[in-house]
Amino acid sequence: MGELGGFLKIHRGGPGQRDPRERVGDYREFTLSRPAGELAQQGARCMECGVPFCHNGCPLGNLIPDWNDLVFRDRWEDAIAQLHATNNFPELTGRLCPAPCEASCVLEIREGDAVTIKQIENAIINRAWDEGWVTPQPPRRESGRAVAVVGSGPSGMAAAQQLRRAGHRVVLFERDEAAGGLVRFGVPDFKIEKWLVQRRVDQLTQEGVELRCGVDVGRDVSVEQLRAQFDAVVLATGSRVPRDLPAPGRELTGIHFAMDYLYQRNRWVAAELGPAPDAPAPVAVPITAAGKDVVVIGGGDTGADCVGNSLREGARSVTQLELLPEPPPRRPDDRTPWPLWPTKYRLSYAMEEARQTGRGEQDYSVATTHFSADQNGCVAALHIARAQDAPPFAPVPGTEGELPAQLVLLAMGFLHPEQDLLDQLGVQRDARGNVSVVRPYTTSEPGVFAAGDARRGQSLIVWAINEGRQCARMVDRFLSELDGGSSAADQATAPAHPGQVHDAAIRGEADADEGPEGPPQHVGPGVSASS
Ligand SMILES: Cc1cc2nc3c(=O)[nH]c(=O)nc-3n(C[C@H](O)[C@H](O)[C@H](O)COP(=O)(O)OP(=O)(O)OC[C@H]3O[C@@H](n4cnc5c(N)ncnc54)[C@H](O)[C@@H]3O)c2cc1C
Ligand code: SF4
Questions:
Q1: In contact, 234 and 148? CB cutoff 8 Å
Q2: How far is CA 302 from each of CA 299, 354, 414, 433, rounded to the nearest angstrom?
Q3: Of 163, 155, 157, which is closest to residue 211 (Cα–Cα)?
């Protein structure tokens, strides 16, 4: 374990951030990392609990106490081997994960005292890249089987990497001009610079993943072609249909979905700072916040990223509105006690920037009643009222007000994946319109699998990576069944009759992770880093 009693002597020290007033002048990352010595001290605070709740809090099951201890002992190369055992892309989670692990850290029973797990994770992978420990890991043998992965967000990238490393031919189709999904075109550069995403994409292609950007599957490549050319298909198309606000005046010029704005900002930054895309970028109608009063409707991460971009563009004012009541400032132990993820107020990086530059505020329990226009048919004002604090959050009479707005961005979440390709493939959906599965990650259509937001609805990067990994495991087992193979563990539990499905997970009687590979192995002394 770390230092005995370290948590009693060493205070939690999270990552630093650049001054909000300075960082709104550029698009560079604003999170700063600590020197290695300080990180070792932070790792030393880990108690290596007998029951590490953080394992359960992390959707990837990251082996957190192990790498905390390895960092404390200055064994960084072993630490990255341990981290890569469960997580293909720690530089994404180390920067962007909300860190449910820290909410479930035993030290967090004293609220605000958790081990700084996320910053240690980020430091391990940054050091690994700097030292040259992250290298392509092409397979040692080819299986002769081919898989199409549709969508190159974190779930598609994780699935593609795992399947390729298992020896399958993998073609990763992406509609956008570059790979990365929402991490590339939703999340702004000031949260993750895109050369970091591209570096991983390059690793995938160096391992032999065939990346085809600018290809819309279902339109540029037909479902019949997919079925004819591939043994299996993974749907990792995300959850992209935005929730709309059907208020009077919604059709006015200047009211846009958040993703239309964010795509455009990310493309603009890519053109200015790189990296260059793999395929030509589409030309879109410009949406700009420069010099405008901006209202962002929706209080979540997507809304925050709209606020951050608007400030950098030079908006006159930015207001972020949320329909739901303001959460409590501290963990509400009656509703979400430790180790659950607490529903409490968190000041976003973007609202901190807005306040420190005196250009913005946020408000809760606000319902939008309608929009009004100027003489040119462009949005000029948002008409609002206080919202009741329970569904349907209706406007409270007598509380009406008005906000000036020349740009309104709708960031109210996403409903479900786009349905066209799913219709063409004939896969079943659940009541919410997400791809439903009949066995782990296995759709109703033979040979078609699903992972990430397309399966679970709009979620988090850490879940997307986890789903991509687990889905790859199911595809690998399906392909091995096609070849008549079965895992040693499954043979032990299943009678071997001709034509019988050997694999317990394929029969729907086991989880994706059950099998001879089992859970990730702990790293011992002398084990070299792999990626
Ligand atoms: C603005 C914004 C900010 C966010 N910030 C965070 C954050 O800070 N931390 C966090 O954990 N999560 C964040 N999220 C959520 C996170 O980005 C997603 O949960 C995650 O990216 C989902 O990964 P995915 O691979 O399932 O789907 P996506 O990332 O959505 O990728 C799906 C890909 O499929 C492609 N595609 C779709 N249909 C086709 C087709 N027919 N043919 C070819 N390609 C297709 C799309 O172009 C896209 O590239 C954010 C989301 C948004 C919108
Ligand atoms: S991936 Fe997220 S939940 Fe898991 S250890 Fe990293 S920061 Fe914590």
A1: yes
A2: 8, 15, 10, 21
A3: 157
Strands of 169-174's sheet in order across: 210-213, 169-174, 146-150, 232-235, 448-450
**Cα distances (Å, whole numbers) of residue 210 to 22, 214, 454, 480:** 41, 13, 22, 21
Q: What is the C-alpha separation between 321 and 217, in angstroms, rounded?
A: 36
Instruction: Judge if the beta carbon of residue 366 lies within 6 A of ligand 2.
Output: no
Pocket of ligand 1 (CB under 6 A): 96-97, 150-156, 173-176, 181-183, 186-187, 216-218, 236-238, 262, 301-302, 305, 421, 452-454, 458-462, 464
If we measure between CA atoms, which residue out of 211, 218, 154 comes closest to residue 448? 218
pTM of the predicted structure, to 2 decimals: 0.94
Ligand 2: centre distance to CA 118 (Å)? 6
- Evaluate: CB of 318 within 6 angstroms of ligand 2: no
Give the whole-angstrom CA distance, residue 365 versus residue 325. Answer: 5
CB of 121 shorter than 6 A to ligand 2: yes
Degrees to nearest 5, angle at CA 10 with 7 and 12: 85
Peptide bond into 392 cis (omega under 30): yes
The span from the CA of 19 to the CA of 353, in Å, is 9
- Output the residue whose Cα is nearest ligand 1's atom 33: 151
Phi, psi angles (nearest 5°) of residue 163: -70, -40
400: tokens are 């009406």
Burial of 522 (0-12, 13-18, 19+ CB in 10 A): exposed
* Contact assessment for residue 95 and residue 194, using Cβ atoms and an 8 Å cutoff: no
Question: What's residue 297's pLDDT?
Answer: 98
Both tokens of residue 458? Answer: 């709009």
Q: Which two structure tokens, joined as six digits, stand for 23?
A: 């960082």
Please tell me the distance between residue 442's alpha carbon and the centre of ligand 2 in angstroms. 26
- Please tell me the distance between residue 344's alpha carbon and the centre of ligand 2 in angstroms: 19
More confident residue, 509 or 179: 179
Please check whether residue 255 is in contact with residue 170, taking contact to mean a CB–CB distance below 8 angstroms. no
CB 175 within 8 A of CB 187: no
pLDDT in tens, 314-358: 999 999 999 999 999 999 999 999 999 999 999 999 999 999 999
CA distance 179 to 200: 10
Radius of gyration (Cα) for the chain, nearest Å? 24
Q: Model confidence over 358-379: pLDDT tens digits?
A: 999 999 999 999 999 999 999 9
Q: What ligand has the least distance to the C-alpha of 88?
A: 2
Task: List the one residue out of 304, 164, 172, 154 whose CA is nearest residue 238.
Answer: 154
Could you give all domains of the chain from N- to C-terminal order, each with its CATH number?
6-131 (1.10.1060.10), 146-240+415-492 (3.50.50.60), 245-412 (3.50.50.60)
